[in-house]
Amino acid sequence: MAAAGGAERYFTRWYKPDVKGRPCEDFCVLQHSNRICVITLAEAHPLLQSGKTIKSINYQISANCSRLQNKVSGKSKRGAQFLTELAPLCRISSSDGEEYTIYSCIRGRLIEVNENILSNPAILQEKPSTEGYIAVVLPKFEESKSITQGLLTQKEYEEVLLKRLNSSS
Amino acid sequence: MSSLTEKDRPIVQLLLNSGTCPRCILRFCCVGSQALYRHPYKDLMKDLKEFLKNNQEKEDTVCSDVVDPPCKRIRLEPTEEGPDDLNHNGALQQIPSVNDENTATENSAVKVCNVCLGILQEFCEVDFVKKVCQKVNSSDYQFTSFVFSVSLPPQLSVRERAAWLLVKQEMGNLGLSLAKDDIVQLKEAYKWIIHPQLSEELGVPADGKSLFEVSVVFAHPETDEECHFLATACPDCFKPAKNKQSVFTRMAVIKALEKIKEEDFLKHFPCPPSSPQNLCVALEIQCNNGAVFVAGRYNKYSRNLPQTPWIIDGERKLESSVEELISEHLMAEFKADSFNFSSSGREDVDVRTLGNGRPFAIELVNPRRIHFTAEEMKGLQQTINNSSDKIQVRDLQLVTREAIGRMKEGEEEKTKTYSALIWTDKAIQKEDIAFLDDIKELKLDQKTPLRVLHRRPLAVRCRIIHTMKSEYIDEHHFRLHLKTQAGTYIKEFVHGDFGRTKPNIGSLLNRTTDILELDVESVDIDWPPTLDN
Q1: What molecular function terms (GO) are annotated for this protein (chain B) (predicted)?
Q2: In Å, what is the CA distance from A104 to each residue of A29, A49, A125, B77, B519?
Q3: A12 touches chain B (CB under 8 A)
Q4: What's the mean pLDDT in A113-135?
Q5: ipTM of the assembly?
Q6: What's the rounded Cα separation, in Å, for the pair B148 and B207?
Q7: Of A80, B37, B82, B266, which one's alpha carbon is 20 to 30 angstroms from that of B102?
Q8: Which residues are paired to B446 by β-bridges?
Q9: Which residue in chain A has the smallest CA separation from B452?
Q10: Which residues lie closer than 8 Å to B523 by C-beta, 6 or more apart?
């Protein structure tokens, strides 16, 4: 993991590997000191492996719910869609026929989803930790410390990666 | 008493009988001569009694406005205290008084007035004046004039109304009319009496526009419940307000008195009002000086100094702040209670402010000292500058409240120039950044930066970068000077904030960029006026 610079300087990285039991579908939550979280794909995610081409990104996660319809107002972000850990943010299909669901990984209000990746899916793969982010989530003030309980620190995640490497070899 | 005429006689008699003090009697007789109210209490009482006895005399033989020895025709029997009752023919009818006091005790046992509850009695005396002035002098204020404000208990309005109804009735019986507006207001009469005394004692004039306020709050707990009947009669006037202790505020009572019908009033309140046992009490005597405003421009040389104190959960995260470093000395010199610091925009903790500095203004609340010469202000400026190398101030001066508006104007409208030290991941050559110098009026769309998104609404701001000038340093560093519209987020323009500021230096150079240092070079507003520093 390259040292963070620029926009990601004040963020702490937390990880959720193998979400919903699906191997290597790992996510990285960037948590700012002001408690704002940015949901991104971790480098191990299948979508970021070489050879994968993204066919489509869909923020319509159900008949009644599109993440693009999310509207927030005011400082307290009224009107935001509320997310739980396993709430889907979007579905991404690759040209090889696979479909991946991107999950929130944390509880909180959905502030925005990244519309830039709709017009330019390549940046999701080129810069997954910055311009290719998926969504911005604001946890409840009372929960801002506890949301990381279900997540792994950088060190813990590196151990998981090591284990995977060892078990596959 | 030359101000009083025959037609006043019945009112004087009536009110004196019911326990109203001489000055209130004069008020209800619409006597407008200020000087008369200033006569000593004893003299006024005497004169009124004289007036009542002189039923045949014409006004010109009666005492004039000057404090004169008692008139020739003294028929006052020293042992009689109670008012004498006169019938229309002027024949004296001696009725045994209810309070069998003699004149000797008259001086010490002055009945508390049933209308003013002692305001126009005890509280016009020299003792009270001295008490007020003592408070003022011990509070160590600097002032050239004063305004004296008095807060009266609401039940005074009720009693005033009762007295007026009494008088109106009596006048009606005599076929005369009396307009409420002609009656002299209690507060007005009080100020006629007390202003000259305060003025003399303090050595400065009374002035309604003065910034120095001496305020007294009067209370009369004995009669506090007298207003309560109004709540049943006019309930909608008395809405419980969260921060007020009693629903019966002066305003609410006055409103209710306007609404209530005469008959209803008389049903619930005695007319004439009863004589109270006690005088009013002066609850508090307070002094307050209007705020003064000090403006200037500050430079910030530290990359570790917040604008305002940074405290989380009671713990201070960073030592001191711009506002404290500047205000500390001003607070001490002006001896103010507190301050309000504002500036034309602000910079982050890690950003320096160079050049001419950023305009600021400090409101000093309730200052004891208000007069400072230009020399003294210069001295103050020097003191501030000597006390810290993290900030420096210039153009320190006293300004008016109105002037603050100009500073806030600058925050929205004026341009700022910056200098940023930029890092790039991929190598750059001089030619790679030269094109930046040619870009003019670059339009940006900036979403609310993530670093402030927890406390600001999500929005997109359009901002303009007017000009840029680059300075190549090495393959991964260059300095960029920019002139931008007010409200532009410079850091986000450099690193792109996850692509949420478009375009950004990273996208323009097609690299990952970061901002290592930021300085404010100038805040382009010409306020406050530059002084010859």
Answers
A1: metal ion binding; RNA binding; tRNA pseudouridine(55) synthase activity
A2: 9, 21, 19, 100, 38
A3: no
A4: 94
A5: 0.93
A6: 9
A7: B37
A8: B461, B501
A9: A34
A10: B297, B344, B345, B353, B355, B356, B357, B358, B359, B410, B414, B416
DSSP labels for B83-150? Answer: PPEE-TT--EE----SS---HHHHTT-PPPPTTTTTTTTGGGSHHHHHHHHHHHHHTT---S-BEEEE
Residues in chain B within 8 Å Cβ distance of A74: 457
Whole-angstrom distance, CA of residue B265 vs CA of residue B158? 9
Alpha-carbon distance B104 to A76, whole Å?
Answer: 75
The whole-number pLDDT of residue B78 equals 43
Query: Tokens for B163?
Result: 């007295």
Position B142 pLDDT exceeds 80: yes
Phi, then psi, of A138 in degrees rounded to 5: -115, 105
Residues in chain B with CB shorter than 8 Å from the CB of A77 are 457-458
Q: Which residues lie below 8 Å from residue A34, measured CB to CB, with a gap of 6+?
A: B451, B452, B453, B454, B455
Contacts with B461 (C-beta within 8 Å, 6 or more apart), sequence order: B445, B446, B447, B448, B487
Query: Among A119-123, B65-69, B240-244, whose mean pLDDT is lowest?
Result: B65-69
In chain A, DSSP finds a helix count (H) and a strand count (E) of: 3, 9
B497 contacts B449 by C-beta, under 8 angstroms = yes
Three-state secondary structure readout of B252-292: HHHHHHHHCCHHHHHHHCCCCCCCCCCCCEEEEEEEEECCE
All residues of chain A having their beta carbon less than 8 Å from the beta carbon of residue B425 are 5
Q: In sequence order, which residues have a C-beta less than 8 Å from that of residue B3 and are 6 or more positions away?
A: B26, B29, B31, B33, B36, B65
CA B397 to chain CA centroid, Å, is 23
Spatial distance between the Cα atoms of B104 and B106, rounded to a whole number of angstroms: 5
- pTM score, whole prediction: 0.79
* A5 close contact with B: CB closer than 8 A: yes
* Residues B152, B216 contacting (CB under 8 angstroms): no
> How many Cβ pairs within 8 Å bridge chains A and B?
64
Q: Which of residues 92-121 of A touch B (CB under 8 A)?
A: 111-112, 114, 116
Alpha carbon distances (Å) from B239 to B131, B136, B224, B252, B366? 37, 36, 18, 9, 32
**Span B80-85, mean pLDDT?**
41
Name chain A contacts of B514, Cβ cutoff 8 Å. Answer: 5-6, 9
Contacts of B515 in chain A (CB under 8 A): 6
Given the residues B348, B350, B514, B524, the one annotated as active site: B348
Q: Is A143 on the interface with B (CB under 8 A)?
A: no
pLDDT, one tens digit per residue, over A30-68 is: 999 899 999 999 999 999 998 899 999 999 999 889 999
Residue B348 catalytic? Answer: yes
Q: Hey, of B310, B453, B495, B510, which one would you mutate to test binding to chain A, going by the most A CBs within 10 A of its CB?
A: B453
Beta bridge partners of residue A100, listed in sequence order = A92
Placement of tokens 């450099």 in the chain: B494
Q: Average pLDDT of chain B?
A: 86
Which residues face B293 on adjacent strands? B363, B399
Burial class (CB in 10 A: 0-12, 13-18, 19+), B477: middle
Query: How far is B240 from B219, CA to CA, in rounded Å?
Result: 20
Q: Which of A7, A10, A77 sits opposite B458 (nearest CB)?
A: A77
* Predicted confidence (pLDDT) at residue B387 exceeds the cutoff of 60: yes
